[in-house]
From TrEMBL:
Name the record gives this protein: Glycosyl transferase
Family the entry assigns: Belongs to the glycosyltransferase 2 family.
SUPFAM superfamilies: Nucleotide-diphospho-sugar transferases
Keyword hit for Transferase: yes
Glycosyltransferase 2-like domain sequence ranges: 14-171
Organism: Stenotrophomonas koreensis
Keywords carried by this UniProt record: Glycosyltransferase, Transferase
Gene3D superfamilies registered for this protein in UniProt: Spore Coat Polysaccharide Biosynthesis Protein SpsA, Chain A
GO MF, any single term: glycosyltransferase activity
Superkingdom of origin organism: Bacteria
Pfam families: Glycos_transf_2 (PF00535)
PANTHER family for the chain: GALACTOFURANOSYLTRANSFERASE GLFT2, RHAMNOSYLTRANSFERASE WBBL
Length: 343
């Protein structure tokens, strides 16, 4: 069992695992949760997003104590997590990817840090590559255009955001922030949620203990470099669009407007150059061209989010920007790995 709590213990943690065709991943993920020792009750919810493999059979036969939400249709990562959070009964949520596994002491470390802070916050653990065991990040910083920059510093704990592969949040904070925006589908929803918390003056931190292993990109393609950058058209399209939406919704003050103009100028130039160099018209049509129209449609997604977030802002400009770095992340990746390949 995951927990052996003391009698009368009231703290409850809900581990939420979004799954789609993850039959080959779920055992490692679930077993890592069941092996945790923590002074709390633990509930495990799995949302199966209309898998076509044997995920449902596996869950029902081997993990009957797991609370299963079986979707009739594929609704995506954001709605999957929103459904689990709504169904959860715990004080705290831990969003955990089906391609990740907690190291011993992970839940105890997260709970201890939450109790030490004793305030609204979002937490994560150090992320390690599944195969090599190399440290991937301790949360992420951002460049000016909201591209993630892995934090590898042992001295930095406050970060811009933590990825949704292992994201701890009090359930009341999740509810106040509104969860993941359903229109994001997947990608950058974690960036948005953490930015929303930071706008309210809430901490986003990496815990200096334990960790989790992650098969990066196993659940959605991309997200790692093995001899070069590889991703999918869909992932890249969602990434560029959703990061732009998050920039518009979350950046405080008037600086958002010149930043947006610079961002779009560079982004469209990037799209034109990469598409021409790689002779790939699909890249322009599916990834870059749709971004501007998505900002201009009536009731564009970012508008309502910005109004709500900026109305509740409690942080200062100085505090907001201290988890950003000036060097554009894409230039660093281009220098190190060359242009990405898409499939």
């Amino acid at each position: 069992m995951a927990v052996a709590p003391d009698a009368g213990m009231s703290t409850r943690i809900c581990v939420c695992i979004a799954n789609y065709n993850g039959a080959g991943l779920l055992r490692d993920c679930l077993d890592s949760v069941f092996s945790q020792q923590v002074a709390a009750e633990v509930e495990i919810i799995v949302h199966d997003d209309a898998s076509t493999d044997t995920s449902l059979q596996l869950l029902r036969s081997e993990y009957p104590s797991v609370r299963l939400i079986a979707s009739d249709s594929n609704v995506g990562f954001c709605i999957s997590n929103n459904r689990m959070a709504e169904a959860a009964t715990g004080d705290y949520l831990l969003l955990l990817n089906n391609d990740a596994a907690l190291q011993p002491g992970a839940l105890a470390a997260l709970l201890a840090e939450q109790q030490r802070i004793a305030a609204a916050c979002i937490l994560t653990l150090p992320q390690y590559d599944w195969e090599s065991g190399v440290l991937v990040d301790r949360g992420c910083l951002l460049d000016p255009f909201y591209n993630p920059v892995p934090n590898l510093s042992l001295d930095r704990h406050d970060v811009a955001y933590v990825i949704g592969a292992c994201l701890w949040i009090p359930r009341t904070v999740w509810q106040e922030l509104g969860g993941f925006p359903a229109a994001f589908g997947s990608i950058a929803e974690d960036l948005y949620l953490c930015a929303a918390a930071r706008l309210r003056g809430q901490a986003v931190r990496c815990v200096d203990a334990s960790g989790y292993r992650h098969r990066q990109g196993a659940s959605f393609g991309g997200n790692r470099a093995d001899g070069g950058l590889r991703t999918t058209y869909r992932r890249r399209a969602l990434s560029e669009r959703n990061k732009t939406w998050a920039m518009l919704a979350c950046t405080p003050g008037w600086v958002v407007w010149p930043l947006l103009v610079l961002h779009l100028t560079l982004l469209l130039a990037e799209g034109a150059i990469v598409s021409l160099v790689q002779m790939d018209a699909r890249l322009w049509q599916e990834v870059y061209r749709p971004i501007v129209p998505s900002l201009l449609v009536p009731n564009a997604q970012w508008k309502g989010l910005r109004i709500r977030l900026q109305a509740s802002r409690r942080t200062t400009q100085r505090r907001w920007w201290r988890v950003f770095i000036l060097t554009p992340r894409k230039l660093t990746l281009l220098w190190r790995y060359g242009m990405p390949t898409l499939r």
